[in-house]
Amino acid sequence: MRIAILEDDADQAALIKSHLTSIAHDCYLFEAGRALIHAAGRESFDLFLLDWQVPDLSGEEVLKWIRAHVDAPVPVMFVTNRDTEADIVHALAQGADDYMKKPVGRAELLARVGALLRRAYPQKAADALEFPPYRFDLKKQVLSVDGTPTELTQKEFDLALFLFQNLGRLLSRGHILEAVWGRAIDVPSRTMDTHVSRIRTKLNLRPENGYKLTPVYNYGYRLEQLKGAE
């Protein structure tokens, strides 16, 4: 998962990042509120971890911006020295999902982050995922449309699965590239566009099938389920 961390203390930031990257999360560090807001306007994230007192904009102001401008209900947790009952109640009332006091312990941090991510992005335990008329056989790595298997490359299958798992969510190009191709691999942006075009054609992702795959200029893509197609 992609996690944005707002923390101006370098040691604390490094510690939190170390804990989260140890279980394969991708972490992005920001020392100031405006820097995080700038990035969040260009990239999508799965979770925000916010310190309260940081340069230029407070964590509270960043939270308000996230709730006003990020289209999906992305979870937000405060990680801060402020720990009075009034602070916690205020943060939750403003839209935070959880609250943790520094210094962070690895076990508690991973448990809280895991709980937030499970609630926000539930993983179905079944061997298959269905978005009629599409069915993903996760064991066989086969995608069927109205019961007929569709010939896809592995990357096309992975891309289609990622888009359907994030149905209705605006995903940045960087987020898609990391999720499907991996952060360590240098993949030309055009490669992703080509794969998106292929799965749109192969899966006929058009209104008559109840879904629409839309490019968002200078940002990324969104796969939507149209009304009446549930």
Shape: elongated
Query: What is the alpha-carbon Rg in Å?
Result: 19 Å
CATH architecture level-2 label of the largest domain: 3-Layer(aba) Sandwich
Q: Give the name of the CATH superfamily of the largest domain.
A: Response regulator
Order of helices and strands: EHEHEHEHEHEEEEHEHHEE
Relative strand content: 15-25%
Summed over residues and divided by their number, the pLDDT gives a mean of: 91
The major β-sheet equals: 5 strands, parallel
Number of strands: 12
Biggest sheet, strands in spatial order?
A: 2-1-3-4-5
What would you note in describing this structure?
It is built from eight helices and twelve strands. The chain is an alpha/beta fold. The protein has two domains: about 1-120, Rossmann fold (3-Layer(aba) Sandwich); about 130-225, Winged helix-like DNA-binding domain superfamily/Winged helix DNA-binding domain (Arc Repressor Mutant, subunit A, Orthogonal Bundle), CATH 1.10.10.10. A five-stranded parallel sheet has the order 2-1-3-4-5, with helices on both faces. The chain has a four-stranded antiparallel sheet with strand order 6-7-8-9, covered by helices on one side. The longest helix has 15 residues, at about 105-120. The chain is elongated and about 55 Å long. The two termini are about 25 Å apart. The model has no long low-confidence stretch (mean pLDDT about 90).
